[in-house]
Amino acid sequence: MDKIGETTLLIDLAALEHNYRFLKTKLAAQTKFLAVVKAFAYGNDMVVIAKKMQALGTDYFAVAYVKEGILLREAGITAPILILHPQPVNFSETIEHCLEPSLYSPKILHSFLKVAEEKNQTDYPVHIKFNTGLNRLGFLKNDIDFIADKLKNTKALKVASIFSHLAASEDLSEKAFSQKQIAGFNNISNKLKQKLGYSPFRHILNTSGILNYPEAQFEMVRSGIGLYGYGNDKIFEEQLKPVASLKTIISQIHEIAPNESVGYNRAFTSKNYRRTATLPLGHADGIGRQYGNKRGHVNINGKSAPIIGNVCMDMIMIDVTGIDCEEGDEVLIFGPNKSAEDFAASANTISYEILTAISPRVKRVVTNL
Length: 369
Ligand SMILES: *Cc1c(COP(=O)(O)O)cnc(C)c1O
Hints:
Elements: E1 8-12, H1 13-24, E2 32-36, H2 38-43, H3 46-56, E3 60-63, H4 66-74, E4 81-83, H5 91-96, E5 100-103, H6 106-118, E6 124-129, H7 144-152, E7 157-163, H8 175-196, E8 201-203, H9 207-212, E9 220-223, H10 234-237, E10 244-249, E11 252-256, E12 261-262, E13 268-269, E14 274-279, E15 297-300, E16 303-308, E17 316-319, E18 330-334, H11 340-345, H12 351-357, E19 363-367
Parallel strand pairs: 1-19, 2-3, 2-9, 3-4, 4-5, 5-6, 6-7, 7-8
Antiparallel strand pairs: 1-10, 10-18, 11-14, 12-13, 14-17, 15-16, 15-18, 16-17
Bound molecules: pyridoxal-5'-phosphate.
The site of pyridoxal-5'-phosphate (PLP) has 11 residues, from α9 and β9.
């Protein structure tokens, strides 16, 4: 890789492949693998990641919204795509692009069934989502008869899978709760299978679920964050490789005298002589204001430097006093050996948020294609 020259998110496809193979070691050979590529594949470029995952043989993809699924289809992704959170306004397009909706409520089931019948579909694949304790989206156990009746009286739809989502799969102090969700899901899915008279495949595990409850892998698992190199646990993160590295360069260096201030609202004031560097990325690039005022740290030539003062829209200033560096030098915000999880923790958030926050204006460069 040549010098980056400007703020760049490097996307390492060899790391993606490594993470996929690592996650597969936790699974039985016949267990299907769904790659979660919503939110631009957690900020990494949805099309690039999906093409690589398709080449690696992933069985399924999932995105949150129909428009994300359409982008994948337009890019030539042919594998099945589960839409986790569709809305009725998009159901016509859902069918036109062969996208498979999660049906999570009576209202959504009714409205998708209506569109599928109007479009003369037979056995259109849908996925029935149950709420087993997250209380976010999903049918309840009491809806089983309703679902089975609806589906028995139509040829338009066929249940491809039954699924649910764990509320605290990364938190081992909630093990009893997770196990209760898994047992409840097993029970619900068996009942629905019986009523339908056929066997859709089942799935409940996300990345932390795969790592902590591999015995509940059923016929498929869904992984997002693990593919991108994070596992909500240091033990697993040692075995995973970050796909994304966010790098920038120093635009300008300033020598700051005592009692001067740096940045908007004079949020940083110097007690003594400081050397500061200005970097070309700010809250419009995804580095929120909560990283300012010495919470977030970046790496320059192997040394850690705090972000000082307020984060601007297009810039941050860092304190490089005592660090051997000059204008044009490369700066690492997060990546291998500087975990996005730790960077996020400095601002009281999680890797998921900082990864998905990196805005489209940041240049993406794919490595190890
Ligand atoms: C986002 C999402 C996932 C992926 O979770 P990770 O923790 O990133 O593996 C899986 N299932 C559902 C329903 C999701 O919304």
